[in-house]
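go over this record:
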Amino acid sequence: MIADPIPAATAILMRDGADRGAPPEILMIERGASLAFLGGAMVFPGGRVDPGDHAMVPADAVDADEVAARIAAIRETIEEVGLAVAFLPRPDDATMAQLRIAVAAGTPFAEALAFHGLKLDLTALTPFARWCPEHVPVRRFDARFYLAGMPREASTPIIDGNETVGAGWRTAQAWLAAADDGAIRIILPTRRTLERLAQHPDLASAQADARAWPIRRIIPFQAERDGVPSICIPDDLGYPITAEPLATARRG
């Protein structure tokens, strides 16, 4: 029996390349090897949507689950890499450090924001995708992916050394090359996402692409492609590669 998925949110952070005209860079983090879920894998920052995220949703919100997921993506980015995404105003380093400590200590996110006079700009997150794989060995997540930009001067990640043991910025193509070389491990949703992002020269192009396609739950499925058993995704959601041989696909 397939377990009900856990609502989750993921932030795909992009910054300008180091040189003029260079491809944008994407932040990825390395999960601790001992973690039950995706231990040792490289992923985008994110995690489950908590009750506190729902508590921050305005009563007149049209889609409460969507708003809660955006809040969760922002909060999880603070917890995992200490970066300020979608804040008004943008906090300085000292404020961010205090905010992260407060959230880690169990202070409700809304209370921590109010203490520092901060608000969230949820429009700074662009919905990109929604993945809900069924083939998972530990737990199943229904994860909404969001794109957001980060200025280079405020993009240095700070890891906690527990759940997150590493983090770095590379182009989408460089992350894919590292995975192909065996230097890092990524799972199928991450690979398909990087392949899609690798098509774009900047954040604005990636955001325009995200808005051009519908967002539906992506549940990978098994089917034959050219006589080869493959793991597939729908072909009408903007992904340049929609099938991969079952023998090579990393699903968890």
Observations:
- The longest helix spans residues 64-81.
- DSSP finds seven helices and 13 strands in the chain.
- The chain has a mean pLDDT of 92.
